[in-house]
Amino acid sequence: MTLPSHPILTCAATGRLEAKRFGGDETKEWPAMQQAGRAVAAAVRKDFGEIGRFPANARVLVLAGKGNNGGDAMLAAEALLDGFPALRVELLFAFGQLELRLLAQRAYRLLAQAAGNRLQVVSAQAMAGAYDLCLDGVFGFQFRPPAGPEVAALLARVNQLPIRLRAAVDLPSAGLFQADFTYATGCVKTPLLTDAYAGRIRYLDLGFFSGAEKGPDRVLAPGILDPLAGLRPSHSDKRSQGHLLILGGSRSYPGAVLMNVLAALRSGAGLVTALVPESLAPAFAARAPEAMWVGWPETPEGGLALEGLHLLRARLPRATALEIGSGIGREPETLALVADIVKTVRIPVLLDADALQPEIVRAAKTPLVLTPHAGEYARIAGEAGLASFCRKSKATVILKGPITRVCNGAAVYHSFFGGPVLARGGSGDLLAGLTGGLLAQTPKEPLLAAARGAVWHGIAADLLARAYGQTAVQTTQLLDFLSTALRESGNEQ
Questions:
Q1: Contact indicator for 7, 215 with CB cutoff of 8 Å
Q2: CB of 44 closer than 8 Å to CB of 167
């Protein structure tokens, strides 16, 4: 199946796309440039929320090159002026004002007219002090290295300035500008996937794609969540919304499975049954009474014992998906139990955490969704590429990281939502529970469930960081933003 997504293009393919779309006609390019500038400005204001309110008297540095990339940056600054009467813009022409191409000149005139005396054209030597924002528009996707020594020195100097948020338009200039965020306008270009200077990537959809375009690398669109935000069938009941079984936990790691359950309960699944070590069940039932809690016999060390298998088998006929792994630890008896389960069940299974063992993945006879981080992926896949591993294992994988990738062996889907606020214990447990609940609702479409889980989790994380910052938060606070993420997903870029 093809998910709501757009292709990620090489710079050469991007050039062909723009040539086909605009045909060199500047009357068509100008509205797109204005749209890009407004989109960058809006995205910057949202992302600035992770470090505080956008300052009413912000000091903004704009680096402009000769062409459309510089025009985008100047139009973004012009859009930021609206509503901020005390905002000041310092504009530096990397190649001089006389080198501006026609549309960049037009963007400059618009900025100058809007800013009046709030705009100052500066030289590299005049840059000094602290800035709230820097917009990098020196080079775009048509740049061919190397950058000249003067521009390289300029970008190196900018990298040393105290700047609260560094934003690259489309691509970090020459691979030298150190961005906190890169705003990919129109389409995501492949260099961003490996550019260490790109920071976090935001895809700004300008309507270049119909959604039918093919490509091995794709960016997931927030529209994948639209069906979840809509009305459910009027005759729904809990049995029609999926039944997720969760098997996890141990006395050594009790919290992980509880976070699974809390996230699954927010996923829209009609029923959630949790099978956990019997010593944990009473306290967990008090914490989340909406779930059905089943106490499982324990090993002497507090893990899941083989003798509890009958408890799962009795409930499998009424379940639509099974999630295993969070907090189970690595006791041999528990891992043997999991391997036995995946050999016999026929409903789709999500494996997380310590259930991600090579022998368990190989033993499975049912559709798998795997949710590894980089270390767990190396354990189960070795050095295999993501698409190759998915084809060989016939599994759907959510590979967690700064860019979360989802794959079932065909295209690789990239989710650019989320960020450092997720770099804390328990984030993966919430993702597993959320995705498990989605899988229970669409058991025949594991790729859809995995992609929705990654995007929903990421957008909620963005909202959490914008509300409270990246540092002084708890992982489970993300749950309170899942509802808002659905309602606002259509506006998230």
A1: yes
A2: yes
What tokens were used for 281? 């069940």
Is 293:274 a contact under the CB 8 Å cutoff? yes
pLDDT at 490: 54
Question: What would the DSSP string read from start to end of 148-175?
Answer: PHHHHHHHHHHHHS-EEEEEEESS-GGG
Closest-CA residue to 61 (of 199, 233, 220, 177):
177
User: Interior CA angle at 289 toward 286 and 290, to 5°?
Assistant: 165
Strand order in the sheet with 243-247: 5-7, 217-220, 412-415, 404-407, 395-399, 368-370, 349-351, 321-324, 243-247, 271-277, 292-296
Which residues in the chain show pLDDT less than 50? 492-493
Q: Within its chain, how far is the Cα of 202 from the centroid?
A: 9
Residues 367, 390: contact at Cβ < 8 Å? Answer: no
For residue 326, give both structure tokens: 């969070």
β 217-220/5-7 pair status: antiparallel
Task: Give me the domains of the chain, ranges plus CATH numbers.
Answer: 5-215 (3.40.50.10260), 224-491 (3.40.1190.20)
The one-letter code for the residue type at 233 is: P
Question: Sign of the CA dihedral 157, 160, 162, 168?
Answer: positive
- Residue 353, Ramachandran bin (φ over 0: left; ψ between -120 and 50: alpha; else beta): left
Instruction: Report CA Rg, the chain.
Output: 25
Look up residue 252 and give its two tokens. Answer: 């050594």
The four Cα atoms 468, 474, 478, 484 give a dihedral, to 10 degrees, of: -30
pLDDT digits (tens, 9 = 90+) for 438-475: 999 999 999 999 999 999 999 999 999 999 999 999 99
Return the pLDDT at 343: 96
Examine residue 146 and say whether the peptide bond preceding it is cis (omega within 30 degrees of 0).
Answer: yes
Q: What is the number of alpha carbons within 13 Å of residue 82 lying toward its C-beta? A: 11
Counting every residue written for the chain, the total comes to: 493
Read off φ and ψ for residue 486, nearest 5 degrees. Answer: -65, -45
Alpha carbon distance 447, 1 (integer Å): 8
CB 417, CB 47: distance < 8 Å: no
The answer, as to whether pTM is greater than 0.85, is yes
Long-range contacts (CB closer than 8 Å, 24 or more residues apart) made by 340-348: 340/306, 340/309, 341/247, 341/309, 341/312, 342/366, 342/368, 345/316, 347/316, 347/319, 347/320, 347/321, 347/322, 347/443, 348/321, 348/322, 348/439, 348/443, 348/446
